[in-house]
Design a protein that fits this description.
The complex is a heterodimer of chains A (about 150) and B (about 625). By secondary structure, chain A is mainly α. Chain A has one domain. In chain A, about 85% of the residues lie in helices and about 0% in strands. In chain A, helix 3 runs antiparallel to helix 4 and helix 4 crosses helix 5. The relative contact order of chain A is 0.09. With about 625 residues, chain B is mostly helical. Chain B has one domain. In chain B, about 70% of the residues lie in helices and about 0% in strands. The chains are: A mainly alpha (about 150), B mainly alpha (about 625). Chains A and B meet through helix 1 of A and helix 1, helix 3, helix 9 and helix 14 of B.
């Protein structure tokens, strides 16, 4: 192994990664615990706090981006979207297959998902602007034919 | 439950291993393995420092103490404000001194400043006490907890081995940087889970035990009052204190011992390997004195009220209660306690091993090693340290638990050395050394190992542990200060003083402190002393009735909570303000590198003589390293 110095860029990237993971380790565990408590005991407060934990984790992540002057990395976006999609899928299936059991929890969970979506959209608009935020989802243009310039 | 327990343990373990691998992939310079290239960022310091200080004091033990002694023990959490104050007083100047002298470890800074290898040896001794007995004690507690939570599915001994081996692998792979990242992550986890559990107990568990029946304290203990300023008891193991152990002087002297953790070589090493911009002040004011002390002060009684202090496994009842509510809630309790214990164990063990490698192996045994050789030597020292810790925790846990309390007590004897380095150049080498040695002796003979040794070898000493309800650290420091000042009177000046003045001249020239005028300066110190007197000193007994039976009035006020608790919270808030005033406004902890000249004193011959390898050691190493070659030639 060579005895070379780590570059500032490498160090900054590693440091940011460690901070993001450190915060998510805590907030994610807390969120899972609270959401499980909320679902098992049909407790709105616990559910609300569970979603609040995810939201606080997300805000902390955005603040880290501001401090380190970075954006979300592609891996982070992929992981976040995957987790969100899986949770939504689980919620949809639960509503379809166990309506009587989950009816009481529909509103808080739906509100929680809405709050998370709103937070993501709000962040994208403030960070990228309305046009760029929209273009991030504009798959037709991205995969369509190359525009002649 | 075992399955869930395994999953929650795998999560932080995976985090640790992942970051060890990441750091090892990125950090190519071997020497950085030991000190992260002294470039740790503020956030890592902020979170890790708070976690280490809390772990050093032991949240696990403190919850038990509050359960056993009630609100008198809850006052001990004000020690965090004292740790913040100590940090404000010393951390910045120690860091500046290390940069000016180009020293990599606390021992090196002191050895060069006082031109004394003896101080280096003393610091190594203190670092060893944290690295081996204290770390063994924490590992042993963690293994006990794991064995009890898994209902014996994981035996105590196997828990010791698994944790020990895992921590060695992770530390050997990732080194200092990975350790600090993991410590920071565990601190965040511990803090969040503490808030969660406090909230859960208050809101979900039904009748809050604290308000329905109160704390189940030990027999004869006054739960909601400090039992006097001092009690003339012979000490623990001789005569018991009436109404409880935590008299006002016991609380004050305990705070002194807590300062020992904040000025220990192991903790100072974290500061020296950081590249601070505002992290020192933020950590001391808002995280340690603010959030850390406040959370424990406000929430610990709620959790402690659920514990059964009289039983050896005090947490079992709460664990069962939480597990009955939800498996995840029980798991959160175990994870919170384990985070505190494991981060303390890993941090103290690895920091001690790294300090030893820098100060002994790299400096005296094998100087001028390449980066790769330094990495290898640090791994060897780490392996030896872990073998010692695992053997002690696994087979003689009593050794760890009897020597662990010595760590903070002995470490606080460095207080005068810190004062000399940072503020008082007239404190000479001999004064500091004499004070430290006498202080350490007094600590030894007012703690369990010294008492047992003397009792077995000679005659039983007339006092026990912590006589007159004063902590051994404070006894030691009193004697230390007396002898230090006595010797300093006779050798305040001379050539040695000129040597020490060089550093203080640089402090005065480039790193002035905004103390303000004479009146402002007086106000700062007098308010600090007044706070200490009322919050953790003799004045704290006023808090017993201050809010429930106000003076100049015959009316009893029904507060619903003990007056002492309100008193404690009030002085916590004032304490945070005080630390903020000193750290930020007076700029005791605000680091500015504008006028810092790196290594300004590094070339000064008086500051490097101490770094030379002794001839006898050089010859010994040469003889040992040449032996195999000679043997093979003889064949």
């Amino acid at each position: 192994m060579t005895d070379r110095e780590m570059t500032d860029r490498e160090l900054k990237s590693l440091d940011r990664h460690a901070l993001v993971m450190a915060l998510w380790l805590g907030f994610a565990f807390l969120a899972v615990t609270l959401l499980k408590l909320g679902i098992d005991h049909a407790n709105w407060w616990a559910l609300g706090l569970g979603f609040a934990s995810v939201l606080v984790g997300f805000i902390a992540h955005v603040l880290i981006n501001v401090v380190f002057k970075t954006l979300f990395t592609p891996k982070e976006i992929a992981l976040g979207l995957f987790a969100f999609a899986i949770s939504l899928l689980w919620f949809g299936l639960a509503v379809i297959f166990y309506p009587e059991l989950r009816l009481s929890l529909f509103l808080p969970i739906a509100l929680g998902f809405l709050a998370l979506t709103a937070a993501v959209i709000f962040t994208m608009i403030t960070w990228l602007g309305v046009r760029d935020a929209f273009e991030s989802f504009d798959i037709i243009r991205r995969f369509g034919p190359e525009k002649k310039r | 439950m075992q399955g869930l327990l395994t999953i929650i343990l795998v999560l932080p373990a995976a985090y640790a291993l992942y970051f060890a691998a990441q750091v090892s992939r990125h950090v190519k310079k071997g020497a950085d393995h030991l000190d992260a290239g002294s470039s740790l960022t503020d956030w890592a310091y902020i979170f890790a420092a708070a976690g280490v200080l809390i772990a050093g004091l032991g949240p696990f033990d403190h919850l038990r103490l509050v359960a056993t002694y009630g609100f008198q023990a809850n006052m001990l959490f004000l020690s965090f404000v004292c740790m913040g104050l100590a940090g404000a007083l010393f951390q910045k100047r120690l860091w500046l001194a290390s940069q000016i002298m180009d020293a990599k470890s606390p021992g090196e800074v002191f050895a060069r400043y006082y031109d004394s290898p003896s101080i280096r040896i003393f610091m190594l001794g203190a670092a060893f006490l944290f690295a081996v007995p204290l770390a063994s004690y924490l590992l042993s507690e963690a293994a006990d907890l794991l064995a009890s939570a898994s209902s014996g599915a994981i035996s105590r001994l196997s828990a010791v081995f698994y944790i020990g081996i895992f921590t060695f692998i992770f530390a050997g792979l990732g080194g200092w940087r990975a350790l600090v990242y993991v410590t920071a992550a565990l601190s965040v986890l511990m803090g969040l889970l503490f808030i969660f559990l406090g909230g859960l107990i208050i809101t979900v568990l039904g009748d809050v035990a604290l308000f329905h029946g109160g704390l189940k304290v030990a027999q004869g203990v006054v739960a909601d009052a400090i039992p006097g300023v001092i009690q003339f008891s012979g000490g623990l193991g001789r005569t018991s204190a009436e109404g409880g152990l935590w008299t006002a002087l016991a609380v004050l002297s305990f705070a002194v011992s807590a300062v020992g953790i904040a000025i220990s070589p192991n903790f100072s090493f974290l500061g020296l390997t950081t590249k601070p911009s505002g992290g020192f002040a933020f950590s001391q004011v808002w995280v340690v004195a603010g959030i850390g002390a406040g959370l424990l002060m406000c929430l610990a009684p709620f959790i402690a009220a659920e514990l059964e202090s009289t039983k050896p496994d005090a947490f079992q009842a709460l664990f069962t209660k939480l597990s009955d509510l939800d498996g995840m809630a029980g798991a959160a309790l175990i994870l919170m306690l384990l985070s505190g214990l494991l981060l303390g164990f890993a941090y103290f063990a690895i920091s001690g091993a790294n300090i030893f490698t820098i100060e002994v192996v790299n400096r005296y045994l094998l100087p001028r090693m390449s980066g790769e050789a330094q990495r290898l030597s640090s791994r060897i020292v780490l392996a030896v340290t872990f073998v010692l810790i695992v053997l002690i925790s696994g087979f003689v846990p009593s050794l760890g638990s009897s020597f662990a309390p010595l760590a903070a007590g002995i470490s606080v004897q460095l207080f005068m050395a810190y004062l000399g380095l940072c503020w008082m150049p007239w404190l000479s080498r001999s004064a500091v050394l004499v004070g430290m040695c006498f202080g350490a002796l007094v600590v030894f003979f007012t703690e369990a190992p010294g008492l047992i040794l003397f009792d077995k070898l000679f005659v039983p000493l007339p006092w026990g542990r912590w006589p007159l309800t004063v902590h051994s650290a404070a006894w030691g420091l009193l004697v230390n200060i007396f002898f230090c000042l006595l010797v300093a009177i006779f050798n305040r000046k001379g050539a040695e003083r000129a040597h020490r003045d060089q550093l203080h001249d640089i402090f005065a020239r480039d790193h002035k402190i905004a103390f303000g005028g004479r009146a402002a300066q007086g106000a700062k110190w007098s308010l600090t002393l007044l706070w200490a007197f009322l919050a953790i000193g003799p004045g704290a007994v006023l808090g017993n009735n201050f809010f429930s039976k106000p003076i100049f009035s015959d009316v009893d006020v029904k507060l619903g909570i003990p007056s002492l608790w309100v008193w404690g919270i009030l002085f916590w808030v004032i304490g945070v303000f005080l630390v903020w005033w000193l750290a930020y406004k007076t700029q005791l902890s605000v680091v500015s590198t504008e006028r810092l000249r790196l290594g300004e004193l590094a070339e000064d011959p008086r500051f490097v003589t101490n770094a030379r390898q002794p001839q006898w050691l050089k010859r010994l190493v040469q003889r040992l390293s040449n032996r195999p070659a000679q043997t093979s030639r003889a064949r």
